[in-house]
Amino acid sequence: MSTAQPAVLIDQEELAARIADLAREIRQDSPSGQLHFICVLKGAFLFLGDLIRAMEGHVTIDFMACSSYGAGTTSSGEVRLSKDLDSGLEGRDVIIVEDIVDTGLTLHYLQEILLARSPRSLRTACLLSKPSRRKIDVTVDYVGFTIEDRFVVGYGLDYDEQYRNLPYIGVLASVTE
Ligand code: IMP
Ligand code: MG
């Protein structure tokens, strides 16, 4: 594990400001009613926490986890559900909350299985997007920041389970894909 602190890519103030904007935007698109947020563990847990605290109106949350096979910083494309939701989605206005969309394979898989559960609506909010890495065309309704093809850590995102506690999004100098 590298001992150097990751270089700052997006600082705390930028994160807070953009997430407040996203919360407003999401609420404007559903002015009344309950929004059901699904946090994709583990990476999106801080994003979910800040997003819903910036949000007005009625909100419920649930958590799911999936793993994509593959070592290091690239995903193999094979996705497996490792923790399912506690409750059903029928008739609900659902927002998937994801940390980052890279190849798009994880999100595509999640959208397919969640749509099959008959929500009234299904939208996706991703804090970060790396469009240059996309392998599959996937719809992301709300994107916090579009970034270049760099491996990022912090604010929930990890490298080998480390760095999730950094309050900012950073870049590890030593990580190569
Ligand atoms: P995808 O299936 O290739 O879109 O990968 C999505 C998942 O890979 C994300 O939910 C992250 O968990 C992980 N991931 C992709 N890029 C990064 C990164 O730059 N830093 C940390 N995790 C990443
Ligand atoms: Mg993830």
Q: What is the element layout, followed by pairings?
A:
Elements: E1 7-10, H1 12-29, E2 35-41, H2 45-53, E3 59-68, E4 79-83, E5 93-101, H3 105-115, E6 121-129, E7 142-146, E8 152-153, E9 169-171
Parallel strand pairs: 2-3, 2-5, 5-6, 6-7
Antiparallel strand pairs: 1-9, 3-4, 8-9
This protein binds inosinic acid and magnesium ion.
Span of the ends, CA to CA: 16 Å
Largest sheet: 6 strands, mixed
**How many E-type strands?**
9
Unreliable stretches covering 5 or more consecutive residues: none
Structure keywords:
177 residues; alpha/beta; 6-stranded mixed sheet; 3-stranded antiparallel sheet; 3 helices; 9 strands; globular; binds inosinic acid; binds magnesium ion
Question: Could you please describe the fold and organization of this structure?
Answer:
The protein has 177 residues and is α/β, with parallel strands linked by helices. The protein is built from three helices and nine strands, in the order βαβαβββαββββ. It has a six-stranded mixed sheet, with helices on both faces. Strands 1-9-8 form a three-stranded antiparallel sheet. The longest helix is centred in the first third of the chain and has 18 residues, at 12-29. The mean pLDDT is 92. It binds inosinic acid (IMP) and magnesium ion.
